Amino acid sequence: MRTLSRLKRLALEVPCMWRDGCCWNFSLRRLQSNMSMLKHLTSKITATGPISVAEYMREALTNPVSGYYVKNDMLGVDGDFITSPEISQIFGELLGVWCVSEWMAAGKSSELQLVELGPGRGSLTSDILRVFSQLKAVLGKVDLSVHLVEISPKLSQVQADCLTADQTQVFDGDDVPVYRSGTTNTGLPVYWYRQIDDVPRGFSVFIAHEFIDALPIHKFQRTEKGWREVMVDIDSEQPDKLRFVLSRGPTLASSTLIQDGEKRHHVEVCPDGGVIVQKLSNRITEDGGAALIADYGHDGTKTDTFRGFKGHQLHNVLEAPGTADLTADVDFSYLRKMTEGHVTCLGPITQQSFLKNMGIDTRLQILLRSCPDSSSRAQLMHGYDILMNPEKMGHRFHFFSVLSRSRLAAIKATLLPVAGFSELRLH
Ligand SMILES: C[S@@+](CC[C@H](N)C(=O)[O-])C[C@H]1O[C@@H](n2cnc3c(N)ncnc32)[C@H](O)[C@@H]1O
């Protein structure tokens, strides 16, 4: 039972922070510096002037040479933060049930592509695939395949280790759509891509857990002269440090990304997240399927959520770029808007409600019965508490789903609810 080994590591009293800023223990600090990234950014700013927060975030996280995601395995006790799939196997198992349920509700297509965006260590896909194996009889002869969209070569290796016992082939070249492929431990073909556009068309269930929050955001501030963009500049008094400044006038982003009637004084917009959701919507409309997006976020209410993590501690976002995770809350109202009404959106609903509706309590009881001793049971309960407690992940994380319009018609005709979303909010 993998929950136990994961929780045993957590039980070593090592501090662990999840990326919405909450921590349940205290800290190891890794001192690292990344002068080359800082140098790269200061040269860029010297040459062209202050850069947007989005450009700063893109460079710091995904620069092909020294980006944070490109060269690190940052997840888990020894990394910078921990996520739900790493806390308990129950999480991924319930998402596996959701995938099968939506495949059935959409008419049991003859093929099913499981597509995970930003799969981290591969744990979530691994837990979903275990459910697929257990539900073989339900899935019947469906043509199953696994597709992982991962920008990090380092993490793709970790995912390969987790899913295939490293039985993978790697293909060189930035222009090859599939840069790694193999066969999973359960005998399914698995492929790795750098971007969603390279995933083959076909009926797909898309999963994005803590993915959209890692995409670059633009930050804006309302001033007496109108909206201005928050930029990153070199600190004139300490040239080896960076600071935030406001753009002198409107920028292309401030002129195009602020919604009409915006009431807030400080706004963050993630256009890349919007583009991803548009692509998912188009695919779901044209090829069939569903998407489940889970992340910390809000429905168009929060203002300043940009933050950094390093060694399970909050970290100054402008310090030592490339050595720390950078993230911002997902604005689900923006994602919904970007689907332009072509699909049905459900949620956001809290993680606690979603997992409860998916039957986490029953699954917990089954696992508890198979626990060999009281310490294993205590660890299982500890994981459940972290996932479900409103003060921990229960109310901070939310689930949001994108479904085809025909699924909406089916919901109305049969009153067949979408698993996990009991209180339907159809948009
Ligand atoms: C915060 S981690 C979440 C990992 C995993 N989903 C989990 O919950 O444990 C973000 C993941 O997205 C990947 N990633 C970040 N930016 C990406 C991008 N632009 N394209 C593809 N993958 C990206 C990272 O390498 C990492 O696997």
What can you tell me about this protein's structure?
- The protein is an alpha+beta fold.
- It has a single domain, classed as Rossmann fold, CATH 3.40.50.12710.
- The chain has 17 helices and 20 strands.
- Strands 4, 5, 6, 7, 8, 9, 14, 18, 19 and 20 form a ten-stranded mixed β-sheet that branches. Strands 3, 10, 11, 12 and 13 form a five-stranded antiparallel β-sheet that branches.
- The chain starts with a helix and ends in a 13-residue tail after the last helix.
- Mean pLDDT is 90; it is low at 1-13 and 25-33.
- It binds S-adenosylmethionine (SAM).
Compact description:
By secondary structure, the chain is of the alpha+beta class. The protein is built from 17 helices and 20 strands.
What is the approximate shape? globular
Count of helices? 17
Query: Architecture, according to CATH?
Result: 3-Layer(aba) Sandwich
What is the CATH topology assignment? Rossmann fold
Span between N and C termini? Answer: 39 Å
Q: What is the CA-based Rg, rounded?
A: 21 Å
Secondary structural class? alpha+beta
- What is the average of the pLDDT values? 90
Domain module tally? 1
CATH class: Alpha Beta
Question: What is the subunit organization of this protein?
Answer: single chain
Question: Which hetero ligands occur in this complex?
Answer: S-adenosylmethionine
Low-confidence stretches: 1-13, 25-33
Proportion of residues in helical segments: 25-40%
Largest sheet: 10 strands, mixed
The share of residues in extended strands comes to 15-25%
Number of strands: 20
